[in-house]
What we know:
Elements: H1 14-38, H2 41-63, H3 79-90, H4 92-109, H5 114-137, H6 156-175, H7 184-203, H8 206-214, H9 227-248, H10 258-275, E1 279-286, H11 289-296, H12 298-315, E2 321-326, E3 329-335, H13 339-354, E4 357-359, E5 362-364, E6 368-374, H14 381-397, E7 403-405, H15 408-430, E8 433-442, E9 448-459, E10 463-465, H16 467-477, H17 480-501, E11 509-513, H18 522-533, E12 540-545, H19 553-566, E13 569-575, H20 581-587, E14 592-595, H21 597-600, H22 611-624, E15 628-631, H23 637-646, E16 650-651, E17 660-661, H24 665-670
Parallel strand pairs: 6-7, 9-11, 11-12, 12-13, 13-14, 14-15, 15-16
Antiparallel strand pairs: 1-3, 1-6, 2-3, 4-5, 8-9, 8-16, 8-17, 9-10
Helix pairs in contact: 1-4, 1-5, 2-3, 2-4, 3-4, 3-8, 4-5, 5-6, 6-7, 11-12, 12-13, 15-16, 17-18
Amino acid sequence: xxxxxxxxxxxxxxxxxxxxxxxxxxxxxxxxxxxxxxxxxxxxxxxxxxxxxxxxxxxxxxxxxxxxxxxxxxxxxxxxxxxxxxxxxxxxxxxxxxxxxxxxxxxxxxxxxxxxxxxxxxxxxxxxxxxxxxxxxxxxxxxxxxxxxxxxxxxxxxxxxxxxxxxxxxxxxxxxxxxxxxxxxxxxxxxxxxxxxxxxxxxxxxxxxxxxxxxxxxxxxxxxxxxxxxxxxxxxxxxxxxxxxxxxxxxxxxxxxxxxxxxxxxxxxxxxxxxxxxxxxxxxxxxxxxxxxxxxxxxxxxxxxxxxxxxxxxxxxxxxxxxxxxxxxxxxxxxxxxxxxxxxxxxxxxxxxxxxxxxxxxxxxxxxxxxxxxxxxxxxxxxxxxxxxxxxxxxxxxxxxxxxxxxxxxxxxxxxxxxxxxxxxxxxxxxxxxxxxxxxxxxxxxxxxxxxxxxxxxxxxxxxxxxxxxxxxxxxxxxxxxxxxxxxxxxxxxxxxxxxxxxxxxxxxxxxxxxxxxxxxxxxxxxxxxxxxxxxxxxxxxxxxxxxxxxxxxxxxxxxxxxxxxxxxxxxxxxxxxxxxxxxxxxxxxxxxxxxxxxxxxxxxxxxxxxxxxxxxxxxxxxxxxxxxxxxxxxxxxxxxxxxxxxxxxxxxxxxxxxxxxxxxxxxxxx
Length: 671
């Protein structure tokens, strides 16, 4: 077991820590001083060469302590076996001095603070003294001048008893310096089985060491050979620990991975249940990390992740856990953190990432979207990670570089999305989708020139659902492409039927929205649908939103140019709502723009004095670029009159008709 800092008072247990530290340190050092005073030169001569060999082996063993495999914990020293051998042979005082010397050597090598090595010498000395009392009870009182040389099978009981007493006292003392968030019994019981096994593995050789030391003349020279089995245990333990470390840590950053993260969260929750402190999990996702990977390569991305991990380690508190969850996702686990501290931590994280990173002689700037979840009464590691992940996605949806705290509303919405993802697969297979068509009219003649195809979902449980209610779930589950292809095929099949049956529909065209998920296969999907339906390419208008092309324009351009070359018309939907409309309009091979309903709403009234100038500017710009203009969301005569006055060519909206079922379109066209 280990302590992580100097003695400090606990808010709820100030006396136990101080009492155990003071008692163990003062009593232990008093016994050390007594041992020095009681050992005479004659005693040293009597122990002679065997003791010198034991001392030499102890020094060598402390240079290479056994480190047993464990998530946390101090090493178990090989020298413990030689300390007990000295006690079995020559009594308490030589054993105490050998033990104190080995501890001082070990603490100096590990550069531990003074308070720590003072306590460790004291507590090990107290533990050795307690085990020596077993010998006293058994009637065995060896001294340097009168050693106990006849160790036999009958001694097994008091030898084992001495191990048990030493082990229990040692654990009890160190548990008194447990983490301030845990109790004495919890720390004692948590460490018991691991240290029982590892300590017994070392102590089991102590009787053999004692026998070899003085059983036969010059047999003490064989003592180093007893290091071989201990070194074998050490090597096996090191290999096991290395394997455990690889299994529990991320190979790139060295941070805890998901497995160790889950264990840390569960431990934190167990401590919070006992002490009443809160556990908080922060889920971080680097914004636009894919851009770095794609532009500079995966090696640069790996370098960035390592730099980010080091900066985050510098931002968190001592005792907090930072883990790499996967990809560009990190998780921070905090205990006993008040809301002001959480705000301060969020600020430190933002500040740590604010300065540019240097990769391949280029500077890269990243930010993080952060989701926060605070443990409740029924929380476990998986629910905390799930909730923090949901909050993180909300932070991304809010514009990235945000911190969002989870609440139950998010969980309910996430549950709805899960149900949507399951229902969407059923809907595709069970013909629950339908397509409605909203007429698009030519303003100069009032003639219907086109129809916009709009998907609807007849959910058996919730009734008729509009696209905004389920398309986000379709994007997340990867079904958007399949759904978009179904809409395209259905719309072209319906259009072919109307064009063949209705004379007024001979030049009718249909507008279909498509998802960015369709882009890799869009040309093939459109070509195949045109071939099956027999509809000419010019009768298809594909509508694309700026958000669909904002992150990666080049692949979009390749697909759209191929479609445009085949004769398919292209429209920019919701024009004017993106922050870079003009730059994309300049590069995209589009044939028309659709003015968003948010601008049309204020025309012909006093709702917004800026809408008319914006619509006027869009129309004038489109005309100068020889692009057609379609106004969406026309609901009243005032808006229609304003659009005609401004020179708009086409419009759609409730003023004429909502989106109509397919079987009502022939009657609409005839009317």
